[in-house]
Amino acid sequence: MSAPHDRPLLDDAAGRLIRPYTVSNGRTRPTTVLDLLSLVRATGTDPQTHLGPEHSVALGLCGGPTSVAEIAAHLRLPAVVTKVLVSDLVDCGAVTAHPPAFHDMPTDRSLLEAVLDGLRRQL
User: Fold this and answer.
1) pLDDT recorded at residue 29
2) Which InterPro entries does this one have (predicted)?
3) 120: which residues sit within 8 A by CB, 6+ positions away?
4) Can you tell me the distance from the alpha carbon of 109 to that of 92, in angstroms, rounded to the nearest whole number?
5) Mutual orientation of helices 68-75 and 79-91 as an angle, nearest 10°?
6) Which of 49, 66, 70, 86 shows its CA 20 to 30 Å from the CA of 99?
């Protein structure tokens, strides 16, 4: 069995011991706009409010830029619940969240055609 901080409130035989909606106190909408590719990073500021164990694990994952999707996978929680938790951490100043940076250059058509050709050869 993994260390408790790696898998909060999980049991190998029983699975999750607390329902996901309980983790977010029944909330389904984050106060911060986040998507699965938003990058989250710890600020080094200790939260002044009491946070649950999932909040603490999520914060521990954010030493470097970490996507919301990665945090959800580590916590084994649905994305919407993870967004609420990350939003809580943003609200208390423990993390910052930024949308992913996409280049303003449109995708190269020849690259897309080469990928499509490669996929067709695999079929």
Assistant:
1) 85
2) DUF742
3) none
4) 44
5) 110
6) 49
Is the separation of the CB atoms in 70 and 18 below 8 Å? no
In residues, how long is the chain?
123
pLDDT of residue 52: 86
Q: In angstroms, rounded to a whole number, what is the distance separating the alpha carbons of residues 59 and 46?
A: 10
CB pairs under 8 A, 24+ apart, for 104-109?
A: none
State residue 19's pLDDT score: 57
| Residue whose token pair is 């690259």 | 111
Place of tokens 């996978």: 73
For position 97, what pLDDT does the model report?
A: 96
Could you give the CA distance from residue 58 to residue 85 in angstroms, rounded to a whole number? 8
Copy the structure tokens of residue 113: 């055609």
Distance CA 110, CA 83 (A): 36
